[in-house]
């Protein structure tokens, strides 16, 4: 995936802009201070993806200000995570975001056309894990990935996941999302040759300790190729999966 720096350098190479103009474009306005936030405009240049807004604990007015500043500086697509319905309703009065209630995600602008090297599978142990899974899946789609959703395929009925071997074995990345004992990650890790990103959820009875039991199970997985993100961190899993699915050979 060509990032902005490559495009600028190619423009210099092709004689479309001068070295001085390219340097100015790279150096100018790395961030803007709007008192309660410093908006990082070079995030996309450094990482390939613009800054994402973490909506928890932010007021609707603060997010409106952040979105406005991003749009004024050329960021056409914006992802907001952990966004509650009341704040989304207020933001919609100013900016036309699409709100996904189950995932608690808001998106400004169209989803990117999938341009990854393959498909990302998002699989959950149970229906109760779907909100976290949707956060992961929508993050992947926002970042330009084709997503295959396999929900409620946990190990309590092993035939359910075994019925989707074709999807799992042909994936570029699999995100497994489970609470309780978190065993799904190990099962999937033993079935596929691609990276598996495990997401423990806070689903489960008392001794599940709000996801700690699943987290420890996933960290202790005997299947190779399984990596683990934090409890309920669907966004982090989706972001990492997208990076894997957009890897280029670096010369």
From TrEMBL:
GO terms, molecular function: 5-(carboxyamino)imidazole ribonucleotide mutase activity; hydrolase activity
Known EC number: 5.4.99.18
SUPFAM superfamilies per the UniProt record, alphabetical: N5-CAIR mutase (phosphoribosylaminoimidazole carboxylase, PurE)
Keywords: Isomerase
Biological-process GO terms, alphabetical: 'de novo' IMP biosynthetic process
One Pfam family matching this protein: AIRC
UniProt entry tagged with the keyword Ligase: no
Main EC class the enzyme belongs to: isomerase
Domain of life: Bacteria
Residue ranges constituting the PurE domain according to the UniProt record: 118-250
Protein name per UniProt: Phosphoribosylaminoimidazole carboxylase catalytic subunit
Species this chain originates from: Peptoniphilus indolicus ATCC 29427
